[in-house]
Write a structure and sequence with these properties.
Layout lengths: L25 H13 L5 H12 L14 H13 L22
């Protein structure tokens, strides 16, 4: 070892810059818009809340999204679309057939 060698022989060159995230494509924008429409999510505040709940960052416009964000957002939209509200009331209130008392 010479006096010029560092403790761990680590290069002093700067590491390469991290690759930038790929922006959302026009096709992906249309997929999101179609999914929101199919799920009946029309309000911009509702759409923004869903997007930000998935991306965990503030998003001003749909064009601020990254290509990798689209799939998780589509899954969240589908979950909301398929969500069935919990049944409330008693078994008596939710019965399907008439009973003798209903016929009186």
């Amino acid at each position: 070892m010479t006096d010029q060698d560092g403790l761990f022989n680590v290069s002093t060159e700067q590491p390469p810059a991290a690759p930038t995230e790929r922006k959302i494509s026009d096709q992906q924008v249309q997929l999101l818009r179609d999914a929101f429409a199919a799920a009946g999510i029309d309000g911009m505040d509702d759409r923004k809340a869903i997007v930000e709940s998935v991306t965990i960052r503030s998003v001003a416009t749909i064009r601020d999204l990254h290509a990798k964000d689209v799939r998780p957002i589509l899954r969240r939209i589908e979950e909301r679309r398929n969500y069935a509200a919990p049944v409330t009331g008693s078994a008596w209130d939710t019965r399907e057939e008439d009973t003798w008392i209903d016929r009186l």
